Amino acid sequence: MNLNIGFVVVVLALLTSVPLRINAQERLLVPMTVVRNASALGAFCLDGSLPAYHLHRGFGAGTNNWLLQFEGGGWCNDLASCFERANTRRGSTRLMTKFEVFSGILSNNASFNPDFYNWNRVKLRYCDGASFAGDAEFDNGTSLLYFRGQKIWDAIIHDLLPKGLGCARKALLSGCSAGGLASFLHCQNFTNYLPENASVKCLSDAGFFLDKRDISLNYTMRSFYKNLVSLQGVEQNLEKNCTSSLKLPYLCFFPQYALKYITTPFFILNSAYDVFQFHHILVPSSSDLHGHWNHCKLNPAACDETQIETLQGFRRDMLLTLRVFFKYSRRGGMFINSCFAHCQSESQDTWFGDDSPRIQNKTIAEAVGDWYFSRRVTKEIDCAYPCDSTCHNLIP
């Protein structure tokens, strides 16, 4: 499906970029840990390889604190795209890099990551194509695909529990893009694994994908997710109160419908002009066959007046969807800026630096830290484009 290819290309380009302002000798490379006993739980990547993660141990005051970061990387929603994905690093740990650069929220440097630098930090590798939520398989006698995202999540957690996660005092479940969506899907479940007296919270970075019509008035993203949920057996793992309340249960894969059932403190980090959603939900290629939006997609300054108004409408829809959370969630946090970007927590430039994006002169790292440690209420909403001069517009 062409839509899926576009998703993968965009997210790969954004997630594999290396922070520009960290010298090579300062980069933290963390080796992969393969979950050897995952097969006993039926946990396999699309191609049948074993799941994996990268763990960098905490130290000092952070020894008993844990930060888990879901890797992002798009989705697959039909057999063709999933077979294609199974032969890439997005569907097989055999094809993944065996070391990952930890930066931004995963950095071990207090100057780059002041609140979480000394925590145990884990990056969960993404190889199932359904935001760690599926539980099915395809087997026609000659070809086999495993849709075991839910079991991958379970297997990694059970591998980490005896390594100290089971005794955590503080924990933060986070993720970027498809991994940010996974934070919504697994936040409640995460708390069940940890001690009752632990401080457990969740963060989604660029994972608040909207259920919205595109410029041709089609529900392109809704159709995509419907096929994904059906193929990968996701519905059984969605929030039960959510699925029982909607005529279309698969819609609970969208964060806007699942959010109200999450009681664990949650922080939503998102751009109001998220480039992934701009390019693939608001203006997918199927709704712009003649390429009228091509220049606008590459450079916001090239957008005409009508296109800017369409983008402002998308921002208004996002803020309207978040209105109840903003107004009534006492333990929730938000940082909705007006940058053309996608994923801002793993890149050092956007997470915490001298020229990082700011709202009310507060960086993303400061906003998340203030929220997690309850230093002050953090619900920041940027003014509309093009008012923010601190933005890093990261357009692929």
TrEMBL record:
<feature type="signal peptide">
    <location>
        <begin position="1"/>
        <end position="24"/>
    </location>
</feature>
<keyword id="KW-0732">Signal</keyword>
<keyword id="KW-0134">Cell wall</keyword>
<dbReference type="GO" id="GO:0071555">
    <property type="term" value="P:cell wall organization"/>
</dbReference>
<keyword id="KW-0964">Secreted</keyword>
<dbReference type="InterPro" id="IPR004963">
    <property type="entry name" value="PAE/NOTUM"/>
</dbReference>
<keyword id="KW-0378">Hydrolase</keyword>
<protein>
    <recommendedName>
        <fullName>Pectin acetylesterase</fullName>
        <ecNumber>3.1.1.-</ecNumber>
    </recommendedName>
</protein>
<comment type="similarity">
    <text>Belongs to the pectinacetylesterase family.</text>
</comment>
<comment type="function">
    <text>Hydrolyzes acetyl esters in homogalacturonan regions of pectin. In type I primary cell wall, galacturonic acid residues of pectin can be acetylated at the O-2 and O-3 positions. Decreasing the degree of acetylation of pectin gels in vitro alters their physical properties.</text>
</comment>
<dbReference type="GO" id="GO:0016787">
    <property type="term" value="F:hydrolase activity"/>
</dbReference>
<dbReference type="Pfam" id="PF03283">
    <property type="entry name" value="PAE"/>
</dbReference>
<keyword id="KW-0961">Cell wall biogenesis/degradation</keyword>
